[in-house]
Structure formats: C-alpha cells, structure tokens
Design brief:
Elements: E1 4-8, H1 20-32, E2 36-41, E3 50-51, E4 56-57, H2 64-71, E5 77-78, E6 89-92, H3 96-102, H4 105-108, H5 116-127, E7 132-135, H6 139-145, E8 150-151, H7 167-174, E9 178-179, E10 188-190, E11 195-198, H8 207-224
Parallel strand pairs: 1-2, 1-6, 2-5, 6-7, 7-11, 8-9
Antiparallel strand pairs: 3-4, 10-11
C-alpha cells in the first residue's frame, strides 16, 4: 500500500491562492511515488481576489475551499475533517494564498498569525512525528509554528537576480529558525523535525527545474514516511 498523504491547498491561482504549477507538480510526483493522496483546504473566505490578467485586486469574494476544488478536480475535503491518524505525511504547495489565506505573512511578515486550523494541523503531524513537506513561501508556516526548525526558501541573497524575495530568508532567521541556502533543484531535510522544504517559484527558474525541485521534496517526504 502506498503512503497516505494529505495535500493542503490555499485557493487557486498564484496571486491569491495556491500556485497551480506547484500543486500539480506535487501531485504528479506523489502519483509517481505510489502515494494515496487526499486534498484539503480550509473553508474560509480569501483575504481578497486578484484579477490574474490585470494583476490587481477586485471587489469579488471567494472561498478558499471552493476555489481549491478547481485544482482538486472537485475531489476535495474541508481541512476541519482531516484526521492525522489517517495519514503518513502532509504537504503544502506554495502561492500567495499561503501568505494571505493560511497566514497573514503577506501583510504582517514575520509578525504574522497562522490560521488556527492550519496551525493545529501542522502541530498534529509534528507531534505524531510524521513528515511535513512545504515549498515556495509555505516554509514560513513551519518557521512560525516550529521555532528553531530548519527550512529553505532558496538563497538569502538575490544571486544573479534569481531570488528576488531573498529577504524572506532573513525574516525566517529573525524568527529563531535556521535558513539553509539551496538552489531550485534541491530541497532541505530537517531530520529532527521531519520538515522538508524547497524554494520552487521563490527562484526565477525554468518550470522544469522547479518541477524537479518539488520532486526532491516529495521523494524525501515519502522516504521519511
């Protein structure tokens, strides 16, 4: 029987939800790894809705669970129904929805708050010593919930203009965590906390390199399961 993995989404679309390519890459690698995946999202209102064509907020109201269902092809569950005992691992793709809907990092930075249900889900897997995989901006969730943990969001300097959000690494260090510099095709394993992270679209890189990096994250999560 394959490893049982819960994948948590934050909406649909990079600017106000989950990053579509990252979610898809994680699902492809999980499928290739023989995992049994169930998809979840919190049943909450999005912080706001962004017109992805114009790049600007609209007056619309959308629900994170309803929007995430687009990525899940309708096969999705309320995060409130997730039972840690039914799973071997937990994975969070990235996207601004993580920083806007699952926590308030997009507005408050390192002083953000994490959605209580998201926080309790992370804590439940951590307490059960089950691995947690996070990519792109989602490692900040671990940095907020697990002080002292090790994560990567890529590099701590904007190397060759490829890491425009490098200051995120400094904020993670200010939270008392250790940031490990990694390139896009790599992931970092915090063996003590069973947290696996990769930078994905925090790096300006070709899509196939981001896909491969997420693949290393998924592989390490399954190995730890």
């Amino acid at each position: 029987m394959g490893k049982r993995v819960a994948l948590v989404l934050a909406g649909c679309g990079v600017f106000d939800g989950s990053e579509v390519h990252e979610a898809s890459a994680a699902l492809v690698h999980l499928s290739r790894g023989g995992a049994q995946v169930r998809i979840f999202a919190p049943n909450i209102e999005q912080m706001h809705v962004v017109d992805h064509f114009r790049g600007s907020p609209t007056e619309e109201k959308r629900n994170v669970l309803v929007e995430s269902a687009r990525l899940a092809r309708g096969n999705i569950e309320d995060l409130a129904e997730l039972k840690v005992g039914e799973f071997d691992a937990l994975i969070f793709p990235g996207g601004f929805g993580v920083a806007k809907n699952l926590c308030s990092w997009a507005v408050d930075g390192k002083n953000c708050t994490v959605n209580e249900l998201v926080k309790s889900t992370l804590q439940a897997f951590h307490s059960a010593k089950k691995p947690i995989g996070l990519c792109c901006i989602s490692p900040v969730l671990a940095a907020k919930v697990f002080p002292g943990c090790e994560v990567t969001v890529g590099q701590d300097k904007n190397v060759d203009g490829r890491f425009p959000d490098a200051e995120t690494a400094s904020a993670i260090v200010e939270l008392g965590c250790k940031h490990i510099c990694k390139d896009v095709a790599e992931s970092h394993v915090d063996a003590t906390n069973k947290i696996v992270t990769t930078c994905a679209f925090m790096c300006k890189a070709p899509l196939h390199e981001i896909f491969d990096g997420i693949g290393t994250m998924v592989a390490e999560v399954l190995k730890l399961s």
